[in-house]
Amino acid sequence: MDEFDTLGAGLARSGISRRSFLKFCTAMASLMALPPSAAYAMADALKRAQRQSVIWLSFQECTGCVESLTRSFDPTLEQMIFEMISLDYQHTLQAASGTAAESAREQTMKSSWGKYVLIVDGSIPTRDGGVYSTVAGISNHDMLVETAKGAAAIVAVGTCSAYGGIPHANPNPTGAVSVSDIIKDKPIMNVPGCPPIPSVIAGVLAYFVTYGKLPELDHLNRPKVFFADTIHDRCYRRPFYDQGKFAKTFDDEGARNGWCLYELGCKGPTTYNACATIKWNGGVSFPIESGHGCLGCSEPNFWDKGSFYKPLPMPLATNNRVIAAAAIGGIAAGAAAAVISRKHQADISKEN
Q1: What does the pLDDT look like over 126-162, one tens digit per residue?
Q2: CA 286 to mean position of chain CA atoms
Q3: Which pTM value belongs to this model?
Q4: Most CB atoms closer than 10 Å: which of 77, 97, 102, 163?
């Protein structure tokens, strides 16, 4: 490997100091819930790694996923990410267009066959031969199948590419499907969200560049490090839920006091994502902190699950009785309330 092609050489040419690089690696290790010591191992691995070739295909989408990454709260972080990877094709961001743009994709596939990471945002229309969305005269379906053949791994960014998203919602006029509905012979990681959290996109790319493989995934192929817990589990309003204190309207006393938004339709108890911990806009806030319940946008079929403002079917009366007992009986009953609360979350997930 030519040392001048390594990430370390590239960073040195860009004037990025070792201290800044270690600071970045520490942030990445923390983001991926790795121990602090992992930052040094990550720095060493990244320094010797070559820039990862990436082809990013955008299909039936709104460009929100791309904008989420490019408008992230920390330009330094994203600048580092873009210097870690070689974004060889992304038709929204690249300067080239038309034949030159498609030539870049074909050349990257040829030169990095079997090594490049394929990122996809947007669903893939399949009805009527896939005519509802094409790029350079090629249907999304055919371009995905062609490009996936030479990919080392595929990252489906956004709920549309992960599950079909809004285009997949009833009546699904274009026959929209997810990436994993079409590609069966490649490792696929789903990073859902409408849009996904930019730091999560950056974090999973950094993981692949560092370790050369995808992170541990759950049963829906989501990285566990970001999607292991529900938003409800990590929500700062959770203590009010456990106390049975709920806002009844968006402007009542409960809302002003920051009480739980469950009765206003919050889908946090059934939605797995890192919004409550990583947050948005530089860690400033997330929808629940801004006073609106979670829509559940990172879950499959979220658009077809009824009103955003209809409460989830949780038997509050039962829960409140146990919570009342906890207040009288102390720690043991409190623990029982927590167990029952988690069981209710599981029951709700099954019903939805």
Answers
A1: 999 999 999 999 999 999 999 999 999 999 999 999 9
A2: 14
A3: 0.84
A4: 163
